[in-house]
Design brief:
111 residues; mainly alpha; 6 helices
Length: 111
């Protein structure tokens, strides 16, 4: 079972997937458990589209998502590999290499 989206989660989700029309429901009668997975799997049309969507976020929002990953509240290992790499690259570019390394170590990602 996923977490209940906070106001911050909702704001970020709708910035990434405005075509969801304000809904965070999967369509199967339950809310999305994560922010990035449905954006990667349902809304982004390509790896480039996913990266462009991520670029809409400000540094504070990127760091918020990175911290959720470290708290096991956001899941990135099930993203398309290119999308996971785009997220990690953005963390490195906008936050720090150390934050990216912390995430990859936390998740056991060899890179």
């Amino acid at each position: 079972m996923g977490r209940i989206f906070s106001d911050t989660d909702n704001r970020i989700f709708h910035k990434l997937a405005p075509e969801a029309g304000g809904s965070t429901d999967s369509g199967a009668g339950h809310p999305f458990p994560f922010i990035l997975r449905p954006v990667s799997h349902r809304f982004a049309e390509s790896g480039e589209d996913f990266r462009e969507r991520l670029s809409r976020l400000d540094n504070e929002e990127i760091e918020y998502l990175a911290d959720l990953v470290l708290q096991n509240q956001e899941e990135i290992t099930s993203l398309d590999e290119e999308d996971m790499e785009s997220f990690l690259d953005l963390v490195e570019e906008r936050i720090s290499f150390d934050k990216k390394r912390e995430i990859t170590r936390h998740l056991g990602i060899v890179g």
